Amino acid sequence: MSQRYPELVAACSAGNLETARFLSEHGSENKIYVRDLAALLERLKAEEDARETALRLGRETDAETLCLPYGRGGLLAAVYLTALARRSGVELRLRAVPIRQETIALAEALGKNPYRMDTAGVLFLTAHSDSLVRALRGTGIPAACIGRLVPGLDKCVVDKTEREYINRPEKGITLEAEVFETERTKDA
After folding, report:
1. What is the CATH number of domain 7-187?
2. pTM beyond 0.90
3. How far apart are CA 115 and CA 59, in angstroms?
4. Which domain of life is it from (predicted)?
């Protein structure tokens, strides 16, 4: 990748996998009001299936875009591990992250961070975030530019009143794609 500190684009809503899993297992007895459970589960399943489309669009939009599918540990784990592998910092805007209201309600009920919930999503490192976001949204995939890699090693959320550091993910959580070794030789 020619740009050392690319922008980050997230495709698919945060926590979609864990939300779908919980609602399908406990849908009728859950304490979270969902107007049409079947329709919501169908939308979440479609979003999970759209991950392959997102990967294809990312590759087609720009040959230098890195496409990193992620799941366990959610978006925050993927962002943290990406910055760690690139030996850089990150500035993240959580308010820009695509997320469903049902996921937020579920996370509050379970006492979880919705951005750490399992997600069938893709994180893109790109120099052309606007065109990639437009292409993804054009196919119905929730997407947004959520931040960028930066010099240094600080991994921060920057859209709160004070900068907040992103915690290391749980042990055993890794990125699904290991593309950094070949990519690192191109940067050097």
Report:
1. 3.90.650.10
2. no
3. 25
4. Bacteria
